[in-house]
Amino acid sequence: MYGRRHVTRSTQPGDVPAVTPETVFIISRDQVSCQIEGETVLLSLKNAVYYGLDPIATRIWELFRNGLTVGGACESLVAEYDVDPAVCMTDTMALCTQLTRWGLLEVVASADIHVPHAAR
Amino acid sequence: MRMFHYQAFGGHLASDFAMPDFEPSLSARADWLVREESAPVATPGRLLGTFDTSLGDQLRLSETPHGVRFESDTVGVWEIEQNSRISYAPPPSAPSELLRSMLLGPVFSLILERTGTLCLHGSAVAWDDCGIAFVAPKLHGKSTLALALATAGARLVSDDLVVVNSDSTPQMRPGTRGLRLFRDSIAMLGARRWSRSGHNAAKSTLRPPSDAVGPSVWPLTTVYVLDPILTNDVERIALRGATAAVALAQRMKLPDTLIGPDAVASRLRRIVRLASNVAVYRLRFAHRWEAIIDVVRALHSWHSIPLSEPDWARTPLIRPSAVKLAQPST
Predict the structure, then answer these.
(1) Closest CA to B124 of B166, B176, B162, B181
(2) CA distance B96 to B320
(3) Helix (H), strand (E) at residue A50
(4) pTM of the full predicted structure?
(5) DSSP character for A31?
(6) Contact state of B245 with A4 under an 8 Å Cβ cutoff
(7) Is B276 at the interface with chain A, CB within 8 A?
(8) Residue B86 contacts residue B103 (beta carbons within 8 Å)
């Protein structure tokens, strides 16, 4: 549903653990990002590949800035957008999986981070 | 030791090897001083980045006590001190073409990027208040399009390296005043008033007549990302937001892996600022000689610019024996 990828070279998919609503993500340090017109440009410092996020993916990216569960992110999104919760969860988990595979998000243990929103 | 003095990118360059790409300067001032050393002066420190070159080796960027240094088996050692003093220790019998491409590529790109500008891999032309840059990888027709427009009345701003600030009104600095083109491109487009000098068997440098260059900085209003395809039409597709910024970021002269980790974030901010302040389009056109005049006419129409029909468009095109245009990318 959201998230665009701009690739300058091929990348090898990394191992991504199974994503559940309880999985906690945080933005990787191995990237730099900048916003433009509500969208986000990302550069992976691991492989020098650029990515672009559309406005909704940008909102999700911002939600994970301080660490958050997928369920917590979906709570915010459902409150902000006219979206079915089940669709939101499916799409958000898919986006998180992709961003993790590209090294832009990292899975962290929930005990290691303050989680603003409780997982459902 | 003889030194050559040139005007380059809005400053003055003094070099101990000739750089015919630049306009000669009568000034003894030197914002950048390039000189050969018998051996590297500084000891390399922290490795800042690497890049695998098309020559098959790896170019490394390291810190030194007063600046940085590039190093590879092919190009030798190039040290940059305080963004102004450039000393190089090339391998034995390094050809002048290698020195030129190193200086005009990574060395100047890094210096200019570290002083706050952006260095696009492209060619640029301009009219009064309209500046256009064509950005693309090698062999996509940047210089050929610049020559086609310059012979139709545009002013040449720069070839191969477009140096631009990222202010709210982006401006291009004058760069190399010659176009490096395959000989068949020159034969096809005529350019009778342009002088030429040899570089190698395949390419020549064309130097424009005085009325085809600009005196100082030019505004940059539009960037076209060249996308030669198999089509009979010329079309431009507007890129906005992150898509425009990524398109520009992918066409920087200096790879992200060679700018140094501390500078990557600030460069991305400058790229985003530039993408916000210029129009960015993907330009799709047929990668055929016959289509060049269609591109020129389309640009004339889109920008309402005073282009004249060039001589080469009035005469039947004669296909040269060896057409060097690259195959479109997929």
Answers:
(1) B162
(2) 29
(3) strand A50-53
(4) 0.87
(5) E
(6) no
(7) yes
(8) yes
